[in-house]
Structures are given as C-alpha cells and as structure tokens.
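Ops channel
N.P.: pipeline sanity check, posting one input/output pair.
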C-alpha cells in the first residue's frame, strides 16, 4: 500500500522593528484555519535592543514561536536570519503591520502546487480621512503581476516559498536600507529557473499610515522600486537597452499625465508609474539609491 502523504511543514517568518502591531499580526497567524501540517512562527527583531522579545514571548500562542535578535536596522539582515533559522518545507512571509485572513496560509498552500513560490494580495486599509483619489487609485495595495511569462518576481509582504528552492541564496544587505531587497531576491531566483504563481485567495490586510497618503510618498516609493528593477538590466548586461527603455517610458507617462490632467486619478497614477521608470534610469546612470530605512 502507498504511504499516506505527509502534510508539509511551514515556518511563518516575520521581520519586525519597533511595531506594537506585531501582536495583532501574531494573533492573526494563530487564528489560521484549514492548515494541517506543522507550523512555527519565526520573528526576527531588527532593533538594536531586543525590544520585540516581550511581544513574542509574552503570551503563548497556538503555534510555537521562535524569537531571533537580528540587529542592524537593515531588513536584509533580519530576512537572512529567518532563512538561516528555517527548517520547514515552506517559508511563509508576512509583515509586522499586516493582518492575515483566517484562510491565508491554507490558500497559499493550495495555490503553490509544484511552483517554487506563491504571492497573495495585500489589501490596503485606508483611514476615513483618506483623499478620494487615494481610494480610487488604490496604489498602496499590492498584488502579483502576471506577464506573458507568468509571475516573474515577488515580494515578502505576502508569500509562500519552497525552502529547497532558496538553497543558499540570501537577500542582499546592500539593499537592506534602501528597500527593494525582496524584489531583487525573487527576480534573481526567477533567473535561476524558479517559477512562481499568484494566489489571489490568500489575502492579508495592511493599514495605511496617514503620512503615506500623499503623492510625494507614492512617487518616492515608486522611484526606489525602479532603482531596484534596474539591477535586472545590469545583471543581464543590458544597461544601455534598459536606459533607453526607461527614459522612453518615463517620457510617455509624463506626456499622458499632461494629456489627462483633467482626470485626477489617472494623472496621479501615470505620474507614479513614471517615477518607477525614472528610478530605473537614475540607477543606470549611477544615481545613489534612496534610503527608506
């Protein structure tokens, strides 16, 4: 008789830095339903002092918890500490200010199939005083982008990754303060043959801070994302091609935003999209990366 299938094990990984919201995140993980295999929660504290330890150890949860002190104020250091500590079949990623839907982990496991990673949506939760254009454009939410080649990169705000597919690869510490380290990481793995899938049913929600409800903040974030994306052109030896493409797309976005100046939502969307392409061009021209952390 064939042996029964063994339920997969999962290490749920959370990086944290001085956020009391970690308590709600951990509670939402403990509240997961439909998960059969063994689950652990690994928390990497990026603060210089072990400030999150009482939050992790203070109340016993449903799943075993492991606290890791990974100081440096460099998020790549924390992410790598989690990878070093993980021993499960899968590594799930969620941020310390997010709340997982009750079926989040089960939906990720159902979606991944024989792929190496699955990425679920992050729903932005806006305050009551958010500007109307913010609500309509919803630029703070995140979802997997499906291209002709499928999903070619990802993020750590909502993901499930096959641990064997990671191997010895790690997040770049050089990007640990500027951000975009997760995009670079998954783009690099994709270039090595890993394959991804979207998991639209595996949702988490994230409150949007008031200081992020501005065009300036969104432009800044998109510009930084472009700087990270530029690394794919550098790695492929296509710096010149990438520069020409980015400048053309940035010009097109600027032109269209002028044409659609009467449409506040479309104009702002195009401006933010153009910032991404400007970031690509800037990085390829040698401009120093923006620092977010």
């Amino acid at each position: 008789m064939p042996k029964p299938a063994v339920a997969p094990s999962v290490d749920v990984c959370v990086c944290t830095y001085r956020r009391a919201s970690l308590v709600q995140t951990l509670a939402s993980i403990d509240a997961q339903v439909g998960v059969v295999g063994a689950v652990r929660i690994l928390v990497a504290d990026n603060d210089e002092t072990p400030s999150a330890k009482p939050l992790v150890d203070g109340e016993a949860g449903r799943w075993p918890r492991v606290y890791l002190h990974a100081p440096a104020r460099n998020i790549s250091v924390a992410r790598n500490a989690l990878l070093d500590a993980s021993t499960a079949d899968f590594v799930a990623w969620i941020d310390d200010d997010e709340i997982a839907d009750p079926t989040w982990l089960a939906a990720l496991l159902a979606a991944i199939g024989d792929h190496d990673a699955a990425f679920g949506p992050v729903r932005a939760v806006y305050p009551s005083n958010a500007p109307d254009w913010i609500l309509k454009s919803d630029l703070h939410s995140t979802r997997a982008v499906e291209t002709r080649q499928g999903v070619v990169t990802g993020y750590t705000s909502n993901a499930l990754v096959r641990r064997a597919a990671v191997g010895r690869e790690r997040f770049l510490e050089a990007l640990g303060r500027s951000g975009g380290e997760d995009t670079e990481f998954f783009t690099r793995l994709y270039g090595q043959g890993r394959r991804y899938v979207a998991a639209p049913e595996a949702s988490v929600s994230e409150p949007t801070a008031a200081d992020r409800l501005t065009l300036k903040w969104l432009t800044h974030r998109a510009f930084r994302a472009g700087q990270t994306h530029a690394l794919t052109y550098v790695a492929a030896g296509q710096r010149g091609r990438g520069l020409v493409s980015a400048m053309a797309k940035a010009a097109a976005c600027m032109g269209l935003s002028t044409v659609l100046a009467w449409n506040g939502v479309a104009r702002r969307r195009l401006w933010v999209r153009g910032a991404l392409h400007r970031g690509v061009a800037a990085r390829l021209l040698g401009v120093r990366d923006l620092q977010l952390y």
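N.P.: looks fine end to end. Residues 215-284 form one domain.
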